[in-house]
Amino acid sequence: MCGRFALYSDYPKLLASLKLPLAEPEQPLAQRYNVPPGTFITAVRRADDEAPLEMTALWWGYRPHWAGEKPPQPINATVEKVATSTYFRGAFAHHRCLVPADGWFEWVLIDGKKQPHFLCREDREPLWLAGIWAKRADGTPGCAIITEPARGVVGEVHSRMPLALDAESLEPWLDPHLTDRETIRHVVHHLDAHLITHWPVSIRVNRPTNDAADLIEPAR
């Protein structure tokens, strides 16, 4: 799954990684080393089919306006069901987004205690996580990050992982004219799992209120 991540790369680095036309956000990006659900997170999307790409804030919690205010607001959507589930399929076809991240956290149970690990690219380049978004009942856009079965070394710490896309898939993923799931499946591909690494970090990351650069340093 993906329930906590870090984003500390600045706008120029993200723009160089994305390689798509993108206006600079109105507010500077804050460096965040422990991003929890139920907060606004940075994402790249089109507000509508004809709108330019924008880097904006989306609420991390998906609940489309047509569902009202009582249904759950999941933070993840599985790749196995996102294109077919009634709750997600409209957003998958028309409202896809990318969530930039420098890495994410997972917890491993060791001797009855949960040890957090930080997972990221070996070259420390940003990750682009596939997501979907929809307007919530209050009018704010909310999103979910798509997950897939764990691949490569990620399987050492968790059974699932966020769907990180390779560089060639970023543009088609954001293309509003691509709506057919089979077409999307053939042109969008996940990042090579061999590029991912991980290491144990401080249990201080367990508290979402802790947010500092040393949270991603190897545990001593």
TrEMBL record:
Question: A GO BP term, please?
Answer: proteolysis
Q: Which residues cross the membrane?
A: none
- Enumerate the SUPFAM superfamilies for this protein: BB1717-like (SSF143081)
> Which EC class is this protein assigned?
hydrolase
- Pfam families, A to Z: SRAP
What's the domain of life for this entry? Answer: Bacteria
Spell out the coiled coil positions from the record.
none
**Which molecular function GO terms apply here?**
lyase activity; peptidase activity; single-stranded DNA binding
Is Lyase included in the keywords of this UniProt record?
yes
Annotated InterPro entries: SRAP (IPR003738), SRAP-like (IPR036590)
**EC number(s) for this protein?**
3.4.-.-
- Does this entry carry the keyword Phosphoprotein? no
User: Could you tell me the keywords of this UniProt record?
Assistant: Covalent protein-DNA linkage, DNA damage, DNA-binding, Hydrolase, Lyase, Protease
Q: Which protein family is it in?
A: Belongs to the SOS response-associated peptidase family.
Name of this chain's protein: Abasic site processing protein
